[in-house]
Specification:
The chain is of the alpha/beta class. The protein has helices at 48-52, 64-74, 97-108, 121-134, 148-157, 167-175, 177-182, 197-207, and strands spanning 3-5, 38-40, 76-79, 82-85, 90-92, 113-117, 183-187. It is built from eight helices and seven strands.
Length: 216
C-alpha cells in the first residue's frame, strides 16, 4: 500500500469536501494503479508560513520520519503467537530533495531500496553517487571521508537535490554498510527483456540479507 504526504496530493480536497481552495501549493495526482492509500497529514493546513517555521526546505520532509515508522509497523505480522517481518522494499523513480531523505530514512530503517536509474533527478543522482563510491565492488569496505569521485558527483549532479537538511545524512548513509547493501540501482532497458524490475526487486531482497535478520 503506497504512503503519501496528504498536503501534496492533487485535488485532495475532493477526498473530504467539494470546495477547492483559491491557492494551491505544489501537488501531485494519486497513482490510479493503486486501490488504497495511506495519507499523512502534517497538520499545517494550506498556509505555507506554518510549515516553514520548522526549517525544512520542502514541506514533504515533515512526514518523512512518520512515514518510515508507519512502513516499519506495516511489515510486522503475527501468526499463532509468533511474530514475523514481512519483506518490504522501496522503489525510487525520479524524485527531488525530499525523496533523497526518504531513501535515507528507508536505509537507516533497514529497508532495501531499488533506484531506477535514468528516470531523472534524485534517482539519477543516487545511482551516480553509488557507482562513484563502489563501482563493481562486491564486498563492503568503508570509503574514505573525502572520496574524490563522490565529491565530484555531489558538485556536478547534486545542485538541485542536495540541501542543507539532507547533505550530511546522505553522505553518512551512502558511505555506510547499510547503504552499500541496501541501495540497488536498476537501469530500465526496453531492449533487454531478460532483466526485469521484478528481478531487481528479488536481488535487492537477497542483498538485504547481509543487513536484515531473517525470521523463521
Amino acid at each position: 500500500m503506497p504512503t503519501a504526504t496528504f498536503s501534496t496530493v492533487a485535488d485532495r480536497e475532493k477526498l473530504y469536501r467539494n470546495c477547492v481552495p483559491r491557492e494551491k501549493p505544489a501537488s501531485y495526482p494519486l497513482d490510479p494503479n493503486h486501490t488504497h492509500f495511506i495519507l499523512l497529514d502534517d497538520k499545517c493546513g494550506p498556509n505555507d508560513e506554518i510549515w516553514r517555521r520548522y526549517g525544512y526546505p520542502v514541506r514533504a520532509d515533515l512526514t518523512i520520519q512518520l512515514r518510515a515508522e508507519v512502513e516499519q509497523e506495516a511489515r510486522c505480522s503475527s501468526h499463532y503467537r509468533h511474530n514475523y517481518k514481512i519483506p518490504i522494499i522501496q522503489i525510487l523513480i525520479e524524485g527531488g530533495p525530499s525523496s533523497l531523505l526518504t531513501v535515507v530514512e528507508a536505509v537507516m530503517h533497514e529497508t532495501p531500496v531499488v533506484v531506477i536509474d535514468g528516470t531523472g533527478r534524485a534517482a539519477n543522482f543516487i545511482a551516480k553517487a553509488y557507482k562513484a563510491l563502489y563501482d563493481n565492488q562486491t564486498t563492503y569496505f568503508s570509503p574514505a571521508n573525502n572520496n574524490a569521485n563522490l565529491e565530484r558527483v555531489i558538485k556536478e549532479d547534486g545542485k538541485d537535490i542536495i540541501t542543507g537538511s539532507n547533505e550530511k545524512r546522505f553522505r553518512d548513509m551512502i558511505r555506510s554498510e547499510k547503504g552499500f547493501f541496501l541501495i540497488n540501482t536498476f537501469l530500465l532497458c526496453p531492449d533487454d527483456p531478460e532483466f526485469k524490475l521484478s528481478d531487481a526487486i528479488l536481488q535487492a531482497l537477497f542483498r538485504g540479507i547481509y543487513i536484515i535478520p531473517i525470521d523463521f
